[in-house]
Amino acid sequence: MNKINVGLIGLGTVGSGVVKTLRNFEYIQITKIAVKSMGKKRNIENLDESMLTTDAFSIVNDPNVDIVVEVIGGVNPAFDLIKTAIMNKKHVVTANKELLAKHGEELFKLASENNVVILYEAAVGGGIPIIMPVKMTLSVNRIDKIAAILNGTTNYILTKMDEEGADYAEVLAEAQKLGYAETDPTGDVEGFDAAYKIATLATIAFKKRVNIKNIHREGITKISARDMAYAKQLGYKIKLIALAQMDGNDADVRVHPMLVKSKHTLAHINGVTNAVMLAGEPIGQIVLSGPGAGEFPTASSVVGDIVTICSELNKTDVVLPMMRCTHKENANPVSISDTKNKYYILFNVNNEPGVIGTIGAICGKHNINLASLLQQDIDDGGDVAEVVVITAKCLEADVQDAIRELEANSCIVKSLIRVME
To answer: CA angle at residue 145 from 241 to 284, to 5 degrees?
Structure first.
């Protein structure tokens, strides 16, 4: 059997895992590896350094390379590299969630025109198999809801805050020290990473394109130890949830913190673990969980895609037709202001007669029913109190209007977190 030649772009954590894992497959050989620096010490035994190059375009333009694997992340130069590989009739495996979210439509169209396939199992769930199951095993289902924890860094931080009663900044510093968070954690803690992933996953599950520009995004930087304590008292955990819901042609897709009932499966996904809950017909509801990042979990998905392509090379004129993009329509985006949710709201108020009545009256004026309420003094003199309310389901636009009026009446809103149903 002739060996299948793979060109690898990137030799960081994931790329190193790919090299190590592919050694178990004698019929696949890596012929070239693009790196940033030739002199860097690699954590790979017996690495043939003659394969290394700083010229990534020499890989995508090499006529002997059958499959290009991209694990460098980001848009530039990954977009031009993958585009060139496709135009040279090479199949592509990528773990690049940002690239797919921003330029997937163009790349999948180009792949179709050149009769090649792009596989990207590692770009959404890391080591969790989700893309192929949705595209193949679950393809008979009408999936109408996804609720997922898709970022290990934020889940680690929120778990530690919940377990230790610590504030965000303290836990972030610890996560950075342990290597769970980047020096600049913005992509993770502000929800960008999860937004890229849910854009791709929702597009596949709903069979309509979801534009990353239409996804409402909030991070976890404003979550406090007080929020964690009140959530626990009320029977909830706080998680960064990537949520996608489809109603007809309307797609409500967003990323933000949510209170999740303590008995819910996602409430028990802790540390750097990720999970995806899918709901639809006829399957009902399922949850897939596992490591969302890391050298070998991500390499597992990348190498799985490589092996899947290899299984069909030279056997058919159209490789993996079910894994190709066939979306012709764009989903109609739903604005966050038009969504209906339950809400957790934490106020600081002057502890004086009538303040609870004021909150109730203003909420009622804006069509908001209060399902529960807690009040606690927060200074020795009892002059200032914290009030926590959980609302019934109501319109986001009404909640925002109510908050503006409440703040005009000396009720300072410290936190607003939506509640998952």
So the answer is: 120
